[in-house]
Amino acid sequence: MKNTFRPISLYLYLALSLLIVSSAFADDQNPEIQLTDAFPNIKLKAPIMIAIPPDGSNRHFLVQQTGKIYILPNDHSDSHTQVFLDISDRIPAKKANEEGLLNLSFHPKFKQNKKFYIHYTQYNPRRNVISEFRFSAADPDKADMTTERIIMELRQPFPNHNSGNMLFGPDGYLFICFGDGGKANDPHNLAQNLWVLNVKILRIDVDSRDGALQYGIPKDNPFVKKKGVRPEIWAYGLRNPWGIYIDPVTKDFWCADVGQGLWEEIDIIVKGGNYGWNYYEGLHRFLIRKQQPPKDSKFIEPIFEYNHIYGLSITGGVVYRGKKIPDLYGWYIYADWKFGTIWALRYENGKVTNNVAILKPSLEEKIQPTAFNLDPEGEIYVLNYDGRIFKITKPD
After folding, report:
1. Per the count of CB atoms within 10 A, which of 48, 289, 296, 379 is most buried?
2. Beta strands 280-281 and 314-319: pairing type?
3. Residue 157 belongs to some domain of the structure
4. Neighbours of 36 (CB within 10 A)
């Protein structure tokens, strides 16, 4: 009898959970925004990010998941793009939709050393690769492919939940995100396993070496010299981070974590933090994981969540610090990839004080935001899955 009613109880729980409406959702659309074509004559499908090197050049590098990095034209009305790097021959045509070229990060001292880092996937065996390259000395519009130095490789059990996000922190160390390796439910229970690097945010020093590693371990990482724990780990218990950002004003480390069955979440990452997956999805016990968490477990709750009435896959964003939309200053801008809604979230004194939809989905125009990136003035680009590049602007 118990076996008969257990799934019914589970389905009832799921149904009731979906009826929960977060009180932090406001129906108004203030402040209002619009999306304008930033590069109206350019459309490169599956853009992952726009990166701008810290050298004052204002050059825009667009990363395409299918394996190329393009330099966009200075004249935004131009249609010409320059291929800067091409590893599309390493990425099979029938790749899974979460594999490929996933990130580009410029070294903080790029102006002096011309180094940059990419995160991509490989096969036989299936793995994630973090590599260092340099710009070509002969042609500043080309990567020197002979300079590749593989920093790290991580085996993956399945083709999805790779994450791939990276960024350099204010202290010059590189943060790297990995997802739980794929399939549903974290079947290998990697999220809470501190002896693997899957489902973790790592922090490494690309300018030094520790033993046989091609990188160094910062001495102030939270698990340095702790037995049974990889010292690269900065935080853990995330499912598939998609969008990380460190606010230069508050130093808050934002992370959007894609949920599974019911909840999408936004976290503030702290040193050594455990964010609960796969014991928790958002604020809620993940019932598929029948084991109870260890009694000494300390999970950090997300600052915000939304259920699958509102969307199915969160795309993490940025905190707006530009000047053209004063009403948005200090708000965190994020979206749902599946539904296309763009929200602004206000986070003050350790809590969310407001969350409003500033752009709602339209049947006439399909919006699927893959990333939010900033221009040199702090204005926001929105990359769309179909290849369009928008900018958030204030309506006339």
Report:
1. 48
2. unpaired
3. yes
4. 12
> How would you classify the pairing of strands 351-359 and 25-26?
parallel
Q: Regarding beta strands 200-204 and 47-51, do their DSSP bridges make them parallel or antiparallel, or are they unpaired? A: unpaired
Task: State in Å, rounded, how far the first CA of the chain is from the last one.
Answer: 64
What pLDDT is stored for residue 32 in this prediction? 78
CATH number, domain containing residue 144: 2.120.10.30
Residue 181 lies in a domain: yes
Which residue is it, tokens 């979230």?
345
**pTM higher than 0.85 for the full model?**
yes
Give the C-alpha distances (Å, rounded to integers) separating 55 from 51, 142, 144, 206, 380: 12, 16, 18, 19, 20
Residue 327 to residue 329: CA distance in whole angstroms: 6
Average pLDDT over residues 378-393: 97
Whether 6 shows a pLDDT value over 70: the answer reads no
Contact (CB, 8 A) for 147 and 134:
yes
Q: Is 25 exposed, middle or buried (0-12, 13-18, 19+ CB in 10 A)?
A: middle
Q: What are the percentages of helix, strand and coil residues in the chain, rounded to 5?
A: 5, 35, 55
- Number of structural domains (the chain) is 1
Boundaries of domain holding 94: 45-330
In a domain, 113, yes or no: yes
User: Token digits for 268?
Assistant: 């503030």
Tell me whether residue 254 is in a domain: yes
